[in-house]
Amino acid sequence: MHVHKHDDALALERGESHVHHHVGHDGNSRTLIIALLLTLSFAVVEAVAGWWSGSLALLADAAHMVTDSSALGLAAAAAWLARRPPSMLHSYGLVRSEVLAALFNSLLMLGLIAFIVSEAIDRIGNPRDIAGGAVIGVAVIGLGVNLAVAWVLHRGEQTLNSRAALLHVLGDALGSVAAITAGVVVVTTGWTPIDPLLSLFVAALILVAALRLLREVVHVLMEGVPLHVQLDAVGRDLAALGGVHRVHDLHVWTLSSGTIALSAHLEIRSLDDWPALLNAARQTLDTRHGIRHVTLQPEVPAAVPLVRGPYPPR
After folding, report:
1. Does domain 226-299 match CATH 3.30.230.10?
2. Where are the domains of the chain?
3. pLDDT in tens, 2-20
4. Does the domain spanning 29-221 belong to CATH 1.20.1510.10?
5. pTM of structure
6. Is the N or C terminus of the chain more exposed, i.e. has fewer CB atoms within 10 Å?
7. Taking a C-beta distance cutoff of 8 angstroms, is the pair 226, 252 a contact?
């Protein structure tokens, strides 16, 4: 929500200037819905085939496709919510919904991994007959569906939310490859332990990716500095602007994918310099650091006690 005062003198007398630039969110709802329908439609087929053939790799792949469907459904809902305008209750809008969806999806993947590991350990000790030919046929079709969904998602906007959904799909593609391999080994050699062993391998690969995503999501929720932004460099660039005496209370955080926010206090020599300094600061932050959602407050040392900040002028 923006409240504008047309009298700049009033804002300067209060010593504040707030300049907000919001980056629009496309969200790619249509892309996510297409991916959801493709994934969910085949998950049922694969689950039935996995149960009939006795293949854990195929059942695990089907379970993963169900979680894919959940992930894609949440991603589509979050993309729609992220486009909702700011309100009196949510002044930033609902852009953080995509972060929450990514968090839930990563936790869902961890739960799926625990299920696969438990079932695999049980089947290593108690081997079961597997219809290898049926496993190969269904898994090949499943791999094709996964690759089609991944292609659809890759062509869309790359947000934290869509990346979480894509991670599910790529992990599922690995599950299909494992199921194909297990089917081939069973058909050619009759060695059934390959099925749970490959399921464990796929679970390990998914675990690494899920933990990486979970760490990134938690970093965003903890208002951490974006990983590609160097806070010291931002402070030095602001302090290097002509007329800036010192920079302090500098904060940089992520609102959502593609939207980085910054707030800072700039001690300046004179408020007469502020309009030019503000434009220079906005341009510097945008071109050098990709930061467009900016809140800057000028302070004049003669009127405000000096605060020792980490970014003195050069």
Report:
1. no
2. 29-221, 226-299
3. 333 333 333 333 333 444 3
4. yes
5. 0.68
6. C
7. yes
